[in-house]
Amino acid sequence: MTISNILAEDRRLVILRTLSEVQKFHLNEMVLRTVLDGFGHKVARDVMRADLIWLEQHMLIRIEKLDAPTSGELWLVHLKEAGQAVAEGRFHPGVARLEAG
């Protein structure tokens, strides 16, 4: 496994765990990027969006694309039930495992 794979898997877990901890289980991409920064994952918007697309393709989240006057488009990310299960520790290939304790 490469370091880039390890980092991508950890970013995906951080995204799912973050969504699982907020009321209504959704956040916009700008907040998620700030959270990733706080966990040591300072990534470009396109890298984070690639992770979000991957999570959506695996049916762990749903992306809602909103018109944003200044940036063109803002993504609102919704956690799905399967994503909640992974955030709580269920194994899913391509997402880091939740550490015990």
A few lines on this structure:
The protein has four helices and three strands. By secondary structure, it is an alpha+beta fold.
Outline the secondary-structure elements.
Layout lengths: L2 H19 L4 E3 H10 L6 H13 L3 E8 L3 E8 L1 H7 L14
Antiparallel strand pairs: 1-3, 2-3
Overview of the structural elements:
By secondary structure, the protein is of the alpha+beta class. The protein has a single domain (3-87), classed as Arc Repressor Mutant, subunit A, CATH 1.10.10. It has helices at 3-21, 29-38, 45-57, 81-87, and strands at residues 26-28, 61-68, 72-79. The protein has a 3-stranded antiparallel sheet. α1 packs across α4. The radius of gyration is 13 Å and the shape is globular.
Radius of gyration: 13 Å
**Run of helices and strands:** HEHHEEH
Low-pLDDT parts are none
Please, how many domains? 1
Neighbour order of strands in the largest sheet: 1-3-2
The average pLDDT value, as a whole number, equals: 94
Identify the CATH architecture: Orthogonal Bundle
| CATH-defined superfamily | Winged helix-like DNA-binding domain superfamily/Winged helix DNA-binding domain
Structural class: alpha+beta
User: How many distinct beta strands?
Assistant: 3
Q: What's the total helix number?
A: 4
What would the CATH topology be? Arc Repressor Mutant, subunit A
Name the overall outline: globular
